Amino acid sequence: MTRWKSSLLTASLASMTLLGSSAWAQKEPPPGEEPRYEEAILEEGHGWQLKNIRGTVLDDATQTYQDYNEYIYSLQPAGIPEVPLPADIAEALTLDAQENKETVYTLNQTILREIEISREQGYLTPALEKLAEQPEEGAMLLGGPTPQSGCPDQIHTRSKSLSLNTPLNFSGTLGGGFSGSLSATGNMSGSATGLVEFAIKRTKVLWWCVPYGARFNYARAYGNAVVGYGAAINGNLSYNYSWQTQIAKPSLGGLSFWIGPVPVYVGFNLPINLGVDVQASVTGTINYNGSQSSTGSFDYTCTLSGCNGSSSYSLGGNNQQTLTGSVSGRVYPTIWAQAAVRAYLYTEWVAYAQVGVRPYLRGDLWGYYGNACGDADADGIQETVDALTFDLDWQLYLTAQASAFGSTPSNWNLWNTPRYHIAFWDLIGSDAIKPMISGTSTATVNVSKSHSAKMRPCWPYTDSVNYRFAWGDGGTTTLSGAAQSWTPSSHTWTTTGPKAMSLTALSDSHGRTLNQATSRTINVIP
Question: Which of 5, 138, 148, 399 fits a disulfide with 356 by CB distance 3.0 to 4.6 angstroms?
């Protein structure tokens, strides 16, 4: 029984592309028209399928779509020994696959049969006469070091350019370890160009070079995009939790063209995914909203085994609302969204490659209550302190994914920005943010005295902290050091008497604004 799959694509949604300039003359489809593609799988085995494909293909001469109905083999290198091929073609593909281990070949079954008939009868069949080409000048016509000596591959590319204006909109419940809701809104806009490259495979038949199939080489995506993204999450969580879903996959149209004797269909779509990752040490609640935008460019070339290229993004403005929460411990909620431009060969099952833009909102909710978090004013008593803070960062990743013959997709992180700090909230005026002071409570007038600063042991961050000592006589000293190491400073008082000294934790190197102070009295004696 055959299995039919069809795709009648429309370009009603303008979005980012995955194909660029062409080695052939650039051809745009007739206005309002898109290629049609259908397939029926007739036979299949390990790494191969025999299909009847039919649809429409753009004729370069007339600029109109013409119908076709062909029988083709789609195969990976693993399927070469199982497909009935002429011996020299099987040998040539096996050698080719040693250099192109992750690829897909498309072979015209009718042409393969015509090749065998022509060799048996000693002259070309009418079908091959239409395709036959003279070998390249200087090529060996008889014999040679390889089965196809004198008939090297011919490289061709095809392209499609679109613009991006794609909204992101999701609202729903998550379930599992999180009882609450998630919403995400935003937009990804810009423009891009992409390019797919194929190699025409040819063999020598008598004194002629005859094309019989094609090999997928790579897809390239390049362009620019503006990513605007916001998310809100609220609810209760009880343990580590991870969730993701595809919220949309709009079609971006397709291309249909001849590569030698093979009609090739390349489709495009825009899979949009949303995900949540939560690491939680204890039970708590979250309710926050944050947004961020980024502008930049990218240029990546992808095969089925990986991608290489470059990208550059800069951070734009941000806007966030007041948040609330309660926790005893530490919770790291991360929300991400991804829009990826995907190019696929015939159907996504046969082969696809994609490049995606994935921004993250990375949260850190910290709570504490107790008296095991240090003696800040050095009076010998551990204070009972509390804390409830929320820290929000933003980060952008360029990702890639590829799959062939329904295999588990391979995923790659191509590039990422550093983590950018958005905001830090102290939700309750946290005592546990107040820094610790070391040193005695007495000093001698006109004699330098040393005191040191550090954060309390329950402070969860390791970034360097900026402090300010106010010595109680009008003098101040600023200093910075590791959060959990004593950072020394010294001062000389010129008058006697009690001095109201204070130490303020101002900020840290990550960008958190702290502004919490510890006070103590220093008695300056003669």
Answer: 399
